[in-house]
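MODEL INPUT / OUTPUT PAIR
PAIR INDEX: 1
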Amino acid sequence: MLRTSMITLLGIFISSNCLAQFSPPGLGKANTASWFAIGLEQNLDKNEMISSATYFGLGRVSDPDDYNLVKKQSIYVVNEEVSHRFHKNWKYAVALSYRWQNRYMDTPPYELDTPDARQELRIYGRFSYLNSLGKFDYSFSYRPEIRFFYNPDFSTATKNTQFRSRFRGKASFNLNPLKTQKIITTAELLFSTTKTDNWSKFEYQETRLCLYYSVAFPKQKITLNLGYMNNLLGKSSITDVHYLALDIAIKNPF
């Protein structure tokens, strides 16, 4: 009930805002995972330089010993982001995100752990450089974020705070003159430090590689994005997780 109420309240608060193509969140160690999201993208000024993006997403995972990517519910996400393209090649964004993620045991039969879930409140920014070359659009971005973790009853989790830095390169290739069909690729490196009693060493944690096909329907104000993400967790001992992702973005409905 508490989880449902929190998501409902946040959804009401941000329901008039927006979304663009995005990659799934990391869901931890698994063989396969799936991600679905639906959201709204709305320009907030006449020059279309300020926009708001809102989405609600669901993620599911397999057990460590099978490949059923929709077997178990993993995460619920509500995300709100406001961005400002203040120059032809430069853009910044600020965002607030709430997440509820189920926790499962590492040993068979992989039932819910104790506590059975973790709540997260995330605040982040993004600073991006954008450009184009012929049919290619590309960007480079830095995203700092602070994450606060809580148990299901809102008590503070053992690992309670994390500062994370994300460095991403993105390129899209337009498949037609109207730019309604695209192939999109991204590569992202994540570094973090986590607080228990003290802060851990700030170091590399994972890599996320994505490949998407995007198709826009201008008359319907809808964009569909179907993609794959390969999540490489760890350094010396690497866990390789495969994601199938689909999102639906409704652009400027108001």
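PAIR INDEX: 2
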Amino acid sequence: MQKRILSLFLCLIMASTVLTGCVSDKQIDEWAQQLHDKLYPEDYEKKIVLQEISEATRNQAKGIVDEIITSGMSEFEKALTIHDWLTFNLDYDHNYTNYHAEEALKTGKCVCQGYAECFELMAELAGLEASIVGGNAVNSTGKRESHAWNQVKIDGEWYNVDVTWDDPSNGADKKVDDHSGNSYKYFLVSKTQLEENHTATDYFEGEKACNTTYDRNVIYQYAASSGLYGDTVYVKSVEEANATIEKTMKSGKTELSVWLLNLADGDESISDYVASFIKKLNYCISPSDSFEVSQDGLIRFEISFYSESEWAEFPIVKNVSEFKELLDDMGKDGVKSYIVRYEVEEGEPEIAASMYNCKVKYSKYNDGKSWLITVTVQK
């Protein structure tokens, strides 16, 4: 509210100057935020006060670490496993009542300080060196606020970790029940990268030189294979995708979750990029109706695939008349749900579903002409 008032105030001032019409709304909002920060520094200069870890909290954390960390794990794998446990099992406390590790582990909710305390505690119990950093950060709405995060040592190198900002429950859409959108944007990053929106003011165990960012391909590959995301693979090329699909098909599964790095160029939409990628695959395969792009640039979508013999078994239609005849025949046979191949030379198939008591769902397949339609007859 304070920022909104300041924006209106700036607009009124500029309306009487030669700058009127020459400055964008975005620039006005940025100036308003800068003015807000100067007038109300207490909003982001709150000091982080750490709480001594009780024996009960330490024992609870040790129980978790003993369960999720195995003896053969590398330091990197330990850090990522702890990061993922926290993003999966804690939700951001938008009521701002739980600040510490004890409250976080008891209730499953906390603010950034609770995430940071939990990460440090669990990392140390797993044999890692870790510390907490206090400061402030500019969030997705452009507001600067008090914040806390971590630094952790992996194979002799120090990195920054912000578990809070990698948890989707921290965002405005508050994905409390859906952790599929967990991010690694702020996992094992350099000082330079973090300082794009974080400013450190308190190093509780001394500042560590975080000079590099960990290889993202290594992070995504291990995270996808961790089992937390189900049957998920991380692929960087069509060749990798084909090999993975072939392996998955041999295992008897028909669906797969895919993480694909967003390499779309500036003139290409992500939808076109995904469609182009799918068309290059060797199998009859379709992406889900929707996909999401995480803040660290991962495109995540579901695919279904069929063998050539399964594909050949689907009934084929080429126009709306044939589609209607098939619906009529299926209805006479009492079939409630079935899949149809609708083949067109170009464009989308004509589906006059409104004249029938059924629902249809269709997706374009990789030959560019075949559409797979799922028909469900309504009661």
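PAIR 2 NOTE: The CA atoms of residues 360 and 375 lie 5 Å apart.
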